[in-house]
């Protein structure tokens, strides 16, 4: 099939590469000239495991091309995917300007029947707005060309995007047209070989499904973070509690790891947008407001623990003269994405408390330098930043942090103190190593920093 994908970002690039991989002829189009020039020359603008190889192969084999030429992209393809950003507006609602701009572009240049598929995360009712935008452009040129608008929300996770796209838990298609449903089914058939996981529903339900899924997952995380905070105060261990509740098949083990708050380009923005959508229909989504507030507070927890362990008691600059080494800046492992990363709040808090902050991340240093400039120190070696630091704090659960050289850590730090926001290490091992260890959701090992 001939497909155009508008928006060469995290979702657009993955979708374009995976559709090309299954034999389709795909044009990826973006307004960002620099990005497209780079892509034409094999420069992939984001870090996503497996994406570069997939793009380069499909590009070389002639199934995937990149352009800024909107006319070409609209004219050449039957299926027009919209995968542009929907960032939060000032009131938290999803900003639809990029989605509607693509709709207008398609309306302006379409030369035959088109299936316009919205893959961006958009509030219920957006398909109607896209339809209107296309229709208005057609009317301006007195055209009676037909088109269909479909909702096909994307559920991929960054860091695992290719696998999620190639072997999806499900693909949701919102359409009211039987013929279009058949074409979409055909397009996704190669990804359904093990089991048919295509769910076809009405458009509004498909749009809502995306928000409901993200809101549910964010709720689980905030819930577990608060259980963890309570465990700490009650002498319970959140890891044991997770095992205890996860074994109930109605609950399951996934998405119950406590952490320094959820981040990324999706959960924070989509929770906000759903609260706003509810407000627009005079419904007070109390539960989600609490989920959001709990998450904001959770982002403070690591800095609170560091100040409690090392603080001088001086209200203005409790960490003045202290150096904190941070492992992990991206909002999750296997990505360079720092959008809404908890590290942003944690580092700002440490700086405000007077600390010198040093950071390591396997992929996000370039991104971090754009955000923090020379206000913090960076190293591409995870051990270098520990030299003479007062503490190590683990913010992101990258694999390389899971089983580090503890002897080396101990030798480098001024005092052996680890504040772990991802509970990566065993308490008894830390005890044995005489490292003072402060995890989330359970009492630390009680070794004082003077040990
Ligand atoms: N990032 C994820 O993991 C993820 C997962 C599922 C769904 N989503 C949703 O998918 C959408 C895209 O997210 P993303 O993270 O890929 O965004 P992104 O910011 O990485 O990419 C968006 C791209 O769209 C381009 N663009 C803007 N206006 C354009 C136009 N008129 N024509 C062509 N290109 C244009 C931008 O230049 C940018 O390259 C959002 O609605 C998001 O909520 C994201
Ligand atoms: O048990 C857990 C699981 C995740 N997180 C945090 O939650 C955030 C989001 O993680 P994850 O969902 O793995 O990454 P995303 O790439 O943001 O993916 C989410 O957002 C996407 C965009 O909408 C959806 O497509 C995905 O289905 C949805 O999982 C990160 O900060 C994680 O550290 C936790 O704190 N504890």
TrEMBL record:
<dbReference type="Pfam" id="PF00984">
    <property type="entry name" value="UDPG_MGDP_dh"/>
</dbReference>
<dbReference type="InterPro" id="IPR008927">
    <property type="entry name" value="6-PGluconate_DH-like_C_sf"/>
</dbReference>
<dbReference type="GO" id="GO:0051287">
    <property type="term" value="F:NAD binding"/>
</dbReference>
<feature type="binding site">
    <location>
        <position position="332"/>
    </location>
    <ligand>
        <name>substrate</name>
    </ligand>
</feature>
<comment type="similarity">
    <text>Belongs to the UDP-glucose/GDP-mannose dehydrogenase family.</text>
</comment>
<feature type="binding site">
    <location>
        <begin position="155"/>
        <end position="158"/>
    </location>
    <ligand>
        <name>substrate</name>
    </ligand>
</feature>
<dbReference type="InterPro" id="IPR014027">
    <property type="entry name" value="UDP-Glc/GDP-Man_DH_C"/>
</dbReference>
<feature type="binding site">
    <location>
        <begin position="255"/>
        <end position="259"/>
    </location>
    <ligand>
        <name>substrate</name>
    </ligand>
</feature>
<dbReference type="GO" id="GO:0003979">
    <property type="term" value="F:UDP-glucose 6-dehydrogenase activity"/>
</dbReference>
<dbReference type="Pfam" id="PF03721">
    <property type="entry name" value="UDPG_MGDP_dh_N"/>
</dbReference>
<dbReference type="InterPro" id="IPR001732">
    <property type="entry name" value="UDP-Glc/GDP-Man_DH_N"/>
</dbReference>
<dbReference type="InterPro" id="IPR036291">
    <property type="entry name" value="NAD(P)-bd_dom_sf"/>
</dbReference>
<feature type="binding site">
    <location>
        <position position="210"/>
    </location>
    <ligand>
        <name>substrate</name>
    </ligand>
</feature>
<feature type="binding site">
    <location>
        <position position="263"/>
    </location>
    <ligand>
        <name>substrate</name>
    </ligand>
</feature>
<dbReference type="GO" id="GO:0000271">
    <property type="term" value="P:polysaccharide biosynthetic process"/>
</dbReference>
<feature type="binding site">
    <location>
        <position position="121"/>
    </location>
    <ligand>
        <name>NAD(+)</name>
    </ligand>
</feature>
<feature type="domain" description="UDP-glucose/GDP-mannose dehydrogenase C-terminal">
    <location>
        <begin position="325"/>
        <end position="427"/>
    </location>
</feature>
<feature type="binding site">
    <location>
        <position position="339"/>
    </location>
    <ligand>
        <name>NAD(+)</name>
    </ligand>
</feature>
<dbReference type="InterPro" id="IPR028357">
    <property type="entry name" value="UDPglc_DH_bac"/>
</dbReference>
<feature type="binding site">
    <location>
        <position position="35"/>
    </location>
    <ligand>
        <name>NAD(+)</name>
    </ligand>
</feature>
<comment type="function">
    <text>Catalyzes the conversion of UDP-glucose into UDP-glucuronate, one of the precursors of teichuronic acid.</text>
</comment>
<dbReference type="GO" id="GO:0006065">
    <property type="term" value="P:UDP-glucuronate biosynthetic process"/>
</dbReference>
<dbReference type="InterPro" id="IPR014026">
    <property type="entry name" value="UDP-Glc/GDP-Man_DH_dimer"/>
</dbReference>
<dbReference type="InterPro" id="IPR017476">
    <property type="entry name" value="UDP-Glc/GDP-Man"/>
</dbReference>
<feature type="binding site">
    <location>
        <position position="86"/>
    </location>
    <ligand>
        <name>NAD(+)</name>
    </ligand>
</feature>
<dbReference type="InterPro" id="IPR036220">
    <property type="entry name" value="UDP-Glc/GDP-Man_DH_C_sf"/>
</dbReference>
<feature type="active site" description="Nucleophile">
    <location>
        <position position="266"/>
    </location>
</feature>
<keyword id="KW-0520">NAD</keyword>
<protein>
    <recommendedName>
        <fullName>UDP-glucose 6-dehydrogenase</fullName>
        <ecNumber>1.1.1.22</ecNumber>
    </recommendedName>
</protein>
<dbReference type="Pfam" id="PF03720">
    <property type="entry name" value="UDPG_MGDP_dh_C"/>
</dbReference>
<feature type="binding site">
    <location>
        <position position="269"/>
    </location>
    <ligand>
        <name>NAD(+)</name>
    </ligand>
</feature>
<feature type="binding site">
    <location>
        <position position="30"/>
    </location>
    <ligand>
        <name>NAD(+)</name>
    </ligand>
</feature>
<comment type="pathway">
    <text>Nucleotide-sugar biosynthesis; UDP-alpha-D-glucuronate biosynthesis; UDP-alpha-D-glucuronate from UDP-alpha-D-glucose: step 1/1.</text>
</comment>
<keyword id="KW-0560">Oxidoreductase</keyword>
<feature type="binding site">
    <location>
        <position position="158"/>
    </location>
    <ligand>
        <name>NAD(+)</name>
    </ligand>
</feature>
